[in-house]
Amino acid sequence: MNIYLDNGYLDMRGIIETGYPFIFIPAARATGKTYGGLKYFTEEHEKIILLRRTQTETDLQNDPQGDGTSFQPVFNDMGIPWHVVKKKNLGYVVNDDPEYTYINGDPAVASINLALSTFANIRGAFDFSYIKRIFFDEFIAESHVKKIKNEGMAFANLYESINRNRELKGEDPVQCIFTANAVNMANDIFMYFDIISHAESMLQSGEEVRAVGNKLIVIPQHSPISARKKKTALYQAVNSEFTDMAVNNKFVLNDFTYVRKMPLNEYQCIFQAGDLFVYKHKSRQDFYVTFRKGVTKEIYEANYSGLEKMNRQRWKFPGYYMDGMIFFESYRCVALFEKYFNLS
Fold first, then answer.
1. In 3D, which of 228, 219, 1, 36 has the Cα closest to residue 137?
2. Cys staple from 294: which of 31, 58, 105, 277, with CB 3.0 to 4.6 Å?
3. Distance CA 305, CA 308 (A)
4. What average pLDDT does this structure show over 91-115?
5. How many helices (H) and strands (E) does the chain have?
6. In angstroms, rounded to a whole number, what is the distance separating the alpha carbons of residues 180 and 25?
7. How far apart are CA 186 and CA 207, in angstroms?
C-alpha cells in the first residue's frame, strides 16, 4: 500500500478508506496527517468528533474567533466561509455555505470537539448515533504534557458510549483515526490496544503499514516531506533528539538499550506480575523481564491491590531499573514494567 500522495504528503483519504475500525498513525510533524484527515471529512461532508486529550486543548478548538481550530487552514484553503459556535457546552465548528448543509436546514457541523479527560461529564446527555468517525488528534502526550490516568480505559468508555449497539443492528462500527507525533511508544493507547510490539518490529524492519485484526498501524518512515524538512533552518539548528521525533519519526522517549533477547536457561523466575515474568540471573546481579512463562509461587495480579503489594515487597526494582540492571524481552515489557512500578 502506497501511503504517500504525489506531493509527498500522507494519503489520508486512501488510509481512511481502507475501512479499518481503528487506524493508528504516529507520524513526523507536518506530514499531512491532521490536515489531510480534516480535508477528507470536509470534502465528504461528514460530521465527526474531533477528540483531544485535555479540555485545554479542546478549548482552543472551541475558540469563537477560530484561531485555534485545526479546521482553519483546511477551510481557508478550500474557500469555505466558516465560524465556531458553541451549543450545549459543545464546540461546533460550522460553516455558512448551503452546499455544506446536512440536516433540516441546520448549519453543517464539521466537528463536535470533545476532550477525553472530561467526556465522562457529558456522555449521557447527547445522542451520537449520527457520528460515523472519531478523529483523535495528538493522542500521544508530549513529554511536558500531564498524562491522564488509564487513558486507554477512558477512550474505550468514550468509544462504547458513542458506538453503542450499532453493530448489533447490522450497522458499521464507528471508525477511529488516531494521529500523533512519534514521542512515546509506551503510551497508554498503544498498551490498551496491544500494539506496542507491532510498532517496535515495524520500526526495526522499516515496515510502514501493518494490519493486526481490525487495527491498521501506519508508521511513515520514508516520508518525502520529512526528507525535505531536514534541510530547513530549524532542523539544521536544533539538537538531534528533536529532529529524530519531528522529522525521522523516532519515538524519542523510549530507550531500547536494555531491550534484547537473553538466554533464559541462565535465569531463574522469581516472581510474576500480571503477564510479566521476572527472572534473576543465576550467577550475576541482573534481571530479565519477559512474557515467557516461568515457575514461581510469587504471583501479583495486575490490579490495584496486587500491584500495591508488589511495590511494597519488590521496592528495590525501580532502583535496579534506573541502574541498568534489568533487561527486557521487548519494549512492551518495558512499558508494562514502568506502568506496574509507577515509573511512567
1. 36
2. 277
3. 5
4. 64
5. 13, 14
6. 7
7. 19
pLDDT in tens, 271-303: 999 999 999 999 999 999 999 999 999 999 999
pLDDT of the residue at 249: 53
Nearest partner of 328 among 270, 297, 294, 286, judged by Cα: 286
pTM: 0.80
Q: Which of 81-85, 150-154, 183-187 has the highest mean pLDDT?
A: 150-154
The β-bridge partners of 278 are: 271, 289
Residue carrying C-alpha cell 510469587 = 298
Q: What is the average pLDDT across 188-203? A: 90
Alpha-carbon separation of residue 131 from 74, 99, 295 (angstroms)? 21, 20, 49
Q: Are strands 90-95 and 82-87 parallel, antiparallel or unpaired?
A: antiparallel
- DSSP type of residue 173: P
Collapse the DSSP code of 25 into the 3-class scheme (helix H, G, I; strand E, B; otherwise coil) and give the result. Answer: strand
Mean pLDDT of 307-311: 96
